[in-house]
Amino acid sequence: MELSLNGNVNQKYEASGLITRETRRSVESRDWRGRTYLEICEFAEAEIRHRGGEPAFPVNVCANESAAHYTAEIGDTRVVAQDAILKVDLGAHVDGYVTDSSVTLCYNESLIDMTEATKTALNEAIKAVRMGESTGDIGKIVENYASRRGYIPIENLSGHSLDQYVVHAGASVPNVWSVSNSAFKLDRVYAIEPFFTTNEGSGIVVEGKTRNIFSLVSRKPTRDAKLDDFLELIWKTRRTLPFAARWFAEHYSKEELDSMISKLMKMRLVHAYPELVESKGTPISQAEHTIRVTAAGPVVLT
Fold first, then answer.
1. Distance between terminal CA atoms of the chain?
2. What is the pTM of this model?
3. Which of these is catalytic: 45, 100, 155, 275?
4. pLDDT digit string (tens) for 12-54?
5. Of 45, 193, 275, 278, which residue is the catalytic one?
6. 89 is catalytic
7. What pairing do the DSSP bridges indicate for beta strands 189-192 and 289-294?
8. In the chain, which residue ranges form alpha helices assigned H by DSSP?
9. Which residue among the candidates 69, 93, 160, 289 is catalytic per the annotation?
């Protein structure tokens, strides 16, 4: 199925949002315990393409203390544990117009309340969005709700504005109160995404060792024909949107991809996103929707 949408940005965002929403629901309807991370990523990315979009970024699959930026690698054998709290963050784009959403699949009974609290915090935050209001005020709502429910928001993770071919477009929507120079703008699109952890946590994520999500920084020629061809392939298929090495496995071996990406990172032509984990190792839940700001209030696209 292919979508032909010309000129109407809102229509493209709505189409992208529908693809993201339906894909998220398909993921949510399945029991992934005992299945590999690779199966989840390939399933969700195939669903996005089947519905007429392209993945906005590699599907993130993050369990327990991992909050963001882990995607399956080539031949990844990691399996979802029977008691995992699993975050699946996914998004689609149509002509570069990105929508972003996530679901927490909680297979641990002791963490179901935290998972539900995070969903409710997201809904409360969305209801408060108004054109011209500070994005920082959303953080106060999320932080206060987390406190009432007995949880801690992750203070150094936030929602974000989106733009064509840009997942993080400059404006931040925090999960704790903060002074912000950014205000919600008419017809702009934002992802709102609270993250909660337990009271034993720090409320801060730190960089883990894994870096397997990348994006193109520059197409500057390298004087290496193979590297230049790879850069052009990235640009042709992704522009500056994030990508995974496994997406190019039909063109190159794993060893070739690892080598080329490493060289391009050293040249600062490709950027890597580190996995983000709770600094004390406590479990994290996440909920996320993409909204468009209208004069009448927020419209949930996902």
1. 20
2. 0.94
3. 100
4. 999 999 999 999 999 999 999 999 999 999 999 999 999 999 9
5. 193
6. yes
7. antiparallel
8. 9-28, 37-50, 112-127, 136-149, 225-238, 254-266
9. 160
H-helix or E-strand spanning residue 135 = none
What is the pLDDT, as a whole number, of residue 178?
85
Residues 54, 93, 288, 289: which is the catalytic one? 288
Taking the alpha carbons of 53, 56, 58, 60 in that order, is the dihedral positive or negative?
A: negative
Q: Out of 47, 54, 89, 278, which one is annotated catalytic?
A: 89
**Domain segments of the chain: what residues?**
9-207+283-300, 211-276
Please give the CATH topology (third level) of the domain spanning 211-276: Arc Repressor Mutant, subunit A (1.10.10)
CATH number, span 9-207+283-300 = 3.90.230.10
Judged against a pLDDT cut of 50, whether residue 225 lies above it is answered with: yes
Number of CB atoms found within 10 A of residue 271's CB = 16
Q: For residue 216, give the 3-state DSSP assignment.
A: strand
Q: Do residues 126 and 101 lie in contact, with contact meaning Cβ atoms separated by under 8 Å? A: no
Q: Which residue has the tokens 């399933």?
A: 43
How far, in whole angstroms, is CA 203 from its chain's centroid?
19
- How does pLDDT run across 59-77, given as a tens digit for each residue? 999 999 999 999 999 999 9
- In angstroms, the CA 93 to CA 19 distance is 9
Residue 179: pLDDT band (50, 70, 90) is confident
Q: Nearest to residue 302, comparing CAs of 190, 223, 226?
A: 190
Catalytic residue, candidates 124, 168, 224, 258: 168
Amino acid of residue 18: L
Domains 9-207+283-300 and 211-276 share a fold: no
Catalytic annotation present for 160: yes
Which pair of structure tokens corresponds to residue 122?
């997201």
**113 has catalytic annotation:** no
Q: Report whether pLDDT(4) > 60.
A: no
List pLDDT tens digits, range 230-283: 999 999 999 999 999 999 999 999 999 999 999 999 999 999 999 999 999 999
